[in-house]
Every structure is written in structure tokens, then in C-alpha cells.
Amino acid sequence: MEAILFIGLPASGKSSFYKERFFNTHLRISLDLLKTRNRERQILNACLATDQRVVIDNTSPTRQQRGTLIEAIRAARVRYQIVGYYFQSQVNDCLRRNLERAERVPDVAIYSAAKQLELPTWEEGFDQLFYVRMHEGKFVVEEWRDEI
User: Fold this and answer.
1) What are the backbone angles phi and psi of residue 51, rounded to the nearest 5°?
2) What's the burial of 96, exposed, middle or buried (CB within 10 Å: 0-12/13-18/19+)?
3) Among 21, 34, 37, 111, which residue has the least CB neighbours within 10 Å?
4) CATH number of domain containing 137
């Protein structure tokens, strides 16, 4: 089984990447859709209890937020591969993409996430880590390197 955590600023391409790469294979859990952490936790627990492949499509900017999710996934009765995708992006690029979205987030949400953002580390418990970036309108995925 596979549990994927997205890490990145609002409007960095996370949901679009999900639709392009995982829509047909993984259930998407998004705080934007569910609105509360309690609902998010309930859906995640249901997915883990039923051996469902899952993508957690949130900003997950801090080690603490990711740690709570990773801990829950590790407690599942089935062994999950925990895969992190870090979306490299600049605040200005996210602000520009946000203007093009149907459902915009307040600019302050982008600035706030950027201020909180901590790069993921292997020590958090990931089995795999990747960088995702946009290049000429397409997603480019690269294996994680400890230096940027």
C-alpha cells in the first residue's frame, strides 16, 4: 500500500499533480474539501482500515503536521510505503497561479505557508521523497537530494 503526502505552498500545483498522476489510483484527502482536521482524520482512518491507497493533498508545511499524519499511517494494520512529494515553488509564482484559479485562496495563506515551510527530511519517516517543479507548464519529478 502507498500513502502519499504532498508538501508545498498553496497554488504550487499539488491538486493538479494529483489529477494528472494519481486520480485513477489513489483517494484524495484534502483539507480544502473536508474543511476540518476531524473529518480529515476520519477519512484517513477509514482509508487505512480498508487498505486504500491515499494522497494527502494539503500544504503540510511543518514537520509536526507531517509527523501526525506519518504516525497515523505507521499505525495502520497494513504496512504502507510513505512517499513525500515536495513542490518547489516561489511565492510570486504561487501568487500568479492563484490569480488564475477558480477558487482562489487569500494571498496571506500563501505568505503564511511560506513562512512556516520546513523542508521534509528522511528522519520524518518517509520511505521515498521527491521534488516536483513546474517547467514549461509540465511537472518535472526528481528524486530527493538533501541539498537544493
Assistant:
1) 55, 40
2) exposed
3) 37
4) 3.40.50.300
